[in-house]
Amino acid sequence: MNYIIGAFKPPCDIFVTFSDERCRKQVAVKKDNGKTAMVPAFQSLETIAGEVSIAPVPGKRIEHMGVKIELLGQIELYFDRGNFYDFTSLVRELDVPGEIYERKTYPFEFSTVEMPYESYNGTNVRLRYILKVTIGRNYVGNIVECRDFCVRNYSPLPSINNSIKMEVGIEDCLHIEFEYSKSKYHLKDVIVGKIYFLLVRIKIKNMELEIRRRESTGSGPNTYVETETLAKFELMDGAPVRGESIPVRLFLTPYELTPTYRNINNKFSVKYYLNLVLVDEEDRRYFKQQEINMFRLDEIPQPS
Amino acid sequence: MLPDGGGDDEERWLAEGIAGVQQNAFYMHRALDSNNLKDALKYSAQMLSELRTSRLSPHKYYELYMRAFDEMRKLEMFFREETRRGSCSVVDLYELVQHAGNVLPRLYLLCTVGSVYIKSKEAPAKDVLKDLVEMCRGIQHPLRGLFLRSYLSQISRDKLPDIGSEYEGDADSINDAVEFVLQNFIEMNKLWVRMQHQGPVREKDKRGKERNELRDLVGKNLHVLSQIEGVDLEMYKENVLPRISEQVVNCKDDLAQFYLMDCIIQVFPDEYHLQTLETLLSAFPQLQPSVDIKTVLSQLMDRLSNYAATSPEVLPEFLQVEAFAKFSNAIGKVIEAQVDMPVVGAVTLYVSLLTFTLRVHPDRLDYVDQVLGACVKKLSGKEKLEDSRATKQIVALLSAPLEKYSNIVTALELSNYPRVMDYLDNATTKVMALVIIQSIMKNTTCISTSDKIEALFDLIKGLIKDMDGAQDDELDEEDFKEEQNSVARLIHMLHNDDHDEMLKILCTVQKHILQGGPKRLPFTVPSLVFSALKLVRRLQGQDGDVTGEEVPATPKKIFQILHQTIEALQCIPCPELSLRLYLQCAEAANDCDLEPVAYEFFTQAFILYEEEIADSKAQITALHLIIGTLQRMNIFGVENRDTLTHKTTGYSAKLLKKPDQCRAVYACSHLFWTDDQDGIMDGERVLLCLKRALRIANAAQQMANVSKGSSGSVILFIEILNKYLYFFEKGIPQITNTVIQDLIELIRTEKQNDSSASDPSAEAFFASTLRYIEFQKQKGGSIGEKYEQIKAS
């Protein structure tokens, strides 16, 4: 019986381990099946090193055409599912053709790998990094094992970070001025601002601040734009009068945000917007949308 | 109109709200018990979401709020535990609660954690408070905002960085505490005012009412301010009051202005008010015209005057800050600013100011006069007051000094007093005059100079004479009598021990009351006459001392005045009264040895009798009076006396009815026998009179016989018998026991003739007369001896 089962099982187990797996930061990543898994996180220009260990099923022998490990950066667009576009591809040959009788370990190293894009799992697009081990075989298919890892790139605090200040309104109806202290926010930042009511002739019921993510994929006529509201944050309850100023303080921590991605490999962009919405008593919505720039702040050296 | 059942709906909504609170509170408790912070936050936010309702009236909303409030106390305790255990730092917690998506629950939670934050002292109280009060701006809905801020105020009360508090920060921290409360107050007031302007117009009144229910939420802040230890006079003066009053003035809402001004006055100490009068008062003229300023200002003045009353050592301060001048000024400005203020309002203000003045500066009569003067100025250019409430206030205004000084004399020095009175209508003038008189009576004030009396009569002129255009037709007779009686009583209060001055007083009074017209004179003249006679008696008492000098006050002069006065009365005509007064004067003249004067008065009396008194009953009374008076006169020479007595007996015989004639005649007998030393003792004429009386009695008897077929009463005979007995005892030689014996027999015969109907009263009278004779006999002595010969039985 074992023979039969063994015939359909891969004849060996392949493990890919990173050399600093124990101490490396792990992040949660949502997988295709909806489950979250912890994967190690790297950033660009890090050296990715580790071991591949191949353990044949006891009593079996693997004849191969060579063993290699690839580091791939892939973009998958969902309207073109299954078709991966590799923007990064590095290969290391691990073994020359031969046979493996018993467990065998190969160290590997990709030094200072350029990984300009962050891993991203969006509505219509996914960007991922994998280590792919391939045992080449002649007659039967290759044995392939993939290991995901995550890339997060940190930015320093921007030297220029202007506030967003703007006066908007509907003539003789509503004039407001809003001010957000910054235009660039890191992911754990706080949006602080103020809304001034210069003229109020409509009966406002409440006011909220939304954080919206705009993901556009493809290019030219095939552009798909998906907008998603990630946060709805009520700022004000009731109708203000002229001269009131309403404080804004929105902590970004609870929301799953990513940095702003601009034109990643000509395939997609992810942008963030603050949308200020005023709702009147007849549930009409008046809004003004402002783009904000998101970035990932290096957490290790705490900015003072 | 709203359909009925609105109340039921509201009840239902409230019930739903409470159910929601309870349910979420239950889950929250469970989370708290299992130390599950995340769930605790989640359910508490859901619970607080019930407070987001817009459907409840303030009253019901309060109920819901209280439910949630109780639960929040527990949550706060949990937070405190949590941070103490170190499972979550308070800073993190402060951030964590701000993740809530809805603003109202978020802010309630933030305030709650803020309270824990301050307690933990991980951050200066002032920073946390500042943040909280700022963040609360997110609630612009008036009702919800008010309650949220009230919650903030509630949880922060014991955590202000006050002086001496454990949360006191650096040197300036008291400013932060004050700043915090002030800001919360200002925001709450804005919300409260805004409430009036939101929603449909037709429910405006209802909203006014609802707002009134909420006012204490706003006022509480002022209370908190007053409780802050560090708010000393300096700070109050420089910062607190100007800010509050700015807010009050600027909110331009009458309800708020009224309530808050009142609040300021109530919660802060009097001492502060006194020292900041200028600032405080400067706010008043800027208030909305519809604000009931008078009540508030009156309150303030009341409080300050109480303050002055309870601690007399602060009085110098009042002077120092010129409290009166400031009030006076402010009132002037308020009246100027509020053009539409009804007269009653203005007058009420003056009443308060006056009360204040009287209590604080009782010695400053000029202040009182100033107030009255200002009032006159306000009233000037107006007709007499029609508004009954204003009138009432003026009466109060005028009564106040009377009560205070309990001495009308003081009031008489107020030059503006009568000028204010001029604005009263006639009826009220009278009421006021009565009040004045009553005040005099009550305090038995003696007014002793003619100047003052002049002033006084000016005040009460409504009672003294008919006012122009007055309609006396509607006057109640009884009221009128009451009034005039008061005046009459008043006249007796005018007194001066100095005779000359007293004479002047009398002249003044006379001058005034003679203007009174026919209806008043009968009431007032007697008083004047008797008052004058009193003076005469006094003069007479010290006659010898003052002779020789040029004395203005002589009895003669007084009698002249009296004569004029009574003459005026006589013109009304009012003969009976005049006659009595003449007789009184005559008697007084008699005592002063002024024969011609006395004679003159008698002449006047006789003329009156002859010309004016026609009614037979009146004649009888008058005649008896004349006889009585004349009997006591002893200054007349023989000739004068004869003339007068002759006249009198003549009148007696001319009375209409025989019995009256008879009685008058026997009364005349007294004119000829006086007990005085040098008095007349003419037994002959006494007997003559008595005999004449008997004759008339006889005639009367016969007339009765003829007309009624039965003899008249024998009572006349018995009366004459008594006269006989009287003179018998006096020892008139012409009256002998035989005469009396005859008369007794006569009466007996008459009685027997008159068998048909015996008069029981006559019977008793006769019997007791006989008993008297017996009694005298038994008593013995000289009289008894005389009686011995009379057989009574």
UniProtKB/TrEMBL annotation, chain A:
Name of this protein: Vacuolar protein sorting-associated protein 26
Similarity annotation: Belongs to the VPS26 family.
Protein keywords: Cytoplasm, Golgi apparatus, Membrane, Protein transport, Transport
UniProt subcellular location: Cytoplasm; Endosome membrane; Golgi apparatus, trans-Golgi network membrane; Prevacuolar compartment membrane
Gene3D superfamilies on file: 2.60.40.640
InterPro entries: Arrestin-like_C, Vps26-related
Main localization category: cytoplasm
Automatic annotation (TrEMBL), chain B:
Keywords: Cytoplasm, Endosome, Golgi apparatus, Membrane, Protein transport, Transport
GO cellular component, one term: endosome membrane
Topological relation to the membrane, as annotated: Peripheral membrane protein
InterPro entries: ARM-type_fold (IPR016024), Vps35 (IPR005378), Vps35_C (IPR042491)
Main location: cytoplasm
Cell compartment(s), UniProt: Cytoplasm; Endosome membrane; Golgi apparatus, trans-Golgi network membrane; Prevacuolar compartment membrane
UniProt keyword Cytoplasm, yes or no: yes
Domain of life from the UniProt record: Eukaryota
Signal sequence coordinates: none
GO BP term, pick one: intracellular protein transport
The protein's role, per its UniProt record: Plays a role in vesicular protein sorting.
Family, as annotated: Belongs to the VPS35 family.
Protein name: Vacuolar protein sorting-associated protein 35
Organism in which the protein naturally occurs: Triticum aestivum
